[in-house]
Amino acid sequence: MIAVRVRAPHSLEVIEADRAEPGPDEVRVKVSSAGICGSDIHILHGSNPFAKYPRVIGHEFAGTIAATGAAVTALSVGDNVVVDPVISCGHCYACRVGRSNVCANLEVLGVHRDGGFRSQVVVPAANAVKVSKSLPISVAALAEPFSIAANVLVRTGCDERDTILIYGSGTVGLTVLQVAKLKGARVIVADPDKRRLERAEQFGADRLLQSGKDDVPASVAGENDGLGPTLVIDGAGVPALLEEACRVASPAGRIGILGFSPAPCNVSQQEIVKKELTLVGSRLSRRLLPEVIGWLESGQLKPEAMITQTFSGSDAKDAFALIEQAPEKTVKVQLDFS
Ligand SMILES: [Zn+2]
Ligand SMILES: [Zn+2]
């Protein structure tokens, strides 16, 4: 049994780990597939403001129930599950209004608590979501990143009347693209990297813009009967793009912010009022994994091609080195702990 731990910033190690027994309301999951996320890289670099060290990282993982606590009735040994990494208190204001992802007492597995990059992990039973045996477990492990995309589109609203501009064609942009296509929207993706744009095309983007080469604001001005995009998603986290988003958005447009930059930005108040724009932040997901799993099980989402490389859990250092040294070759790198 092993675990992948960040001992301190810039120090990743694979350690021998003990097997913990689940408490009454917990289950022990034998982890099969776990995806590496940008926020894992941030914890490794010491740039995640929430992480405490040492920390077993990993929050995108799926596996099989190996043991259940005495009070657990909804899950059985042998069930395949995806784990929702968001643990919330259930009684603060955010929880009471259904926004458990911004709970005042929020804890995220792999950030505030030890996470899923390990052979076996004990989690609250309420966070384990059962998946069909017919769904490949590596695909099930993509449910968490898709729940991030689902959450921002719940916050902004999204349907077939929308023309969406997505800034960034990395994992976040590609997942938002696929959920937006499922909702019937027209989707434009802007990214400086041609290879990343080709991936967006592969996942159904209607139009591609190469930022830096194409003039993005001028290119989208004619969209939506000349009013501009109805919805802009900032998956890049660049303050200047948020300013641009407010300029290019259509009247009654919405802007979904996923980027996590601490830098202030110069958004025009006039732009927001004149067009009655709605700007919303989106963090993690509010219990949307069951809905996403439904899309995966029914084949409405077919994201297998997002998994670009798989490494054994014991080779985690090589996986992180690849993402750091050749990010253009990767979309989702997964670790296999089975
Ligand atoms: Zn993530
Ligand atoms: Zn709460």
Summarize this structure as a short list of keywords or feature phrases.
338 residues; alpha/beta; Quinone Oxidoreductase, Chain A, domain 1; Rossmann fold; seven-stranded mixed sheet; six-stranded parallel sheet; 12 helices; 18 strands; 26% strand; binds zinc ion; NAD(P)-bd_dom_sf; zinc ion binding; zinc
Total discrete domains: 2
Q: Overall 3D geometry?
A: globular
CATH topology of the largest domain: Quinone Oxidoreductase, Chain A, domain 1
Highest CATH level, the class of the largest domain: Alpha Beta
- pLDDT < 50 stretches: none
Task: Indicate the CATH architecture of the largest domain.
Answer: Alpha-Beta Complex
Radius of gyration: 20 Å
Blueprint of the fold:
Layout (H helix, E strand, L loop, with lengths): L1 E7 L2 E6 L9 E10 L2 H8 L9 E2 L3 E9 L11 E4 L2 E2 L5 H4 L10 E2 L11 E5 L3 E4 L5 H4 L2 H14 L6 E5 L3 H12 L3 E6 L2 H9 L4 E4 L5 H5 L2 H4 L4 E4 L4 H10 L5 E4 L11 H6 L3 E4 L7 H10 L8 E6 L3 H10 L6 E5 L2
Parallel strand pairs: 11-12, 11-14, 12-13, 14-15, 15-16, 17-18
Antiparallel strand pairs: 1-2, 1-4, 3-5, 3-9, 3-18, 5-6, 6-10, 7-8
Bound molecules: zinc ion (2 copies).
The site of one zinc ion has 5 residues, from loops.
